Amino acid sequence: xxxxxxxxxxxxxxxxxxxxxxxxxxxxxxxxxxxxxxxxxxxxxxxxxxxxxxxxxxxxxxxxxxxxxxxxxxxxxxxxxxxxxxxxxxxxxxxxxxxxxxxxxxxxxxxxxxxxxxxxxxxxxxxxxxxxxxxxxxxxxxxxxxxxxxxxxxxxxxxxxxxxxxxxxxxxxxxxxxxxxxxx
Length: 184
Known about the structure:
Elements: H1 2-35, H2 45-66, H3 74-78, H4 82-117, H5 128-155, H6 164-183
Helix pairs in contact: 1-2, 2-5, 4-5
């Protein structure tokens, strides 16, 4: 059960951090290698970093859904009564889940077309189907996270809804507590 809880909280976050570290290391290595006389630059570095950025976009979709960090106008929702805020949350969750499922469904077609083409990336010689599979994973995981948020909002329907400012203050207090624990 602890593993599932950890995956729920940190799966996408871990992938995003790993990808960011890889991008930074490969970019730095490319700069260093370029400055060494007699060595040619890494022909694959730019393509590798581009793929990592693309993958991080698709993996960040389910992460922002789960962390409720999607772009939205919280001030308008704050003006609503508590009951309507909860209804709006459920409606947004439903639209998000349906959008991710719809995009996931059609991303399979795109993936299949790329896989049939046997296209290879120029520098790294990776099958482009490997690159595009992260699109499918991101959209379907986004749909799963959308379902999860619907269930969470139904479960917490009786709890008081925090305003945007209250939520921001609560999040800041949690971060400060975590930073304090890290210092100890």
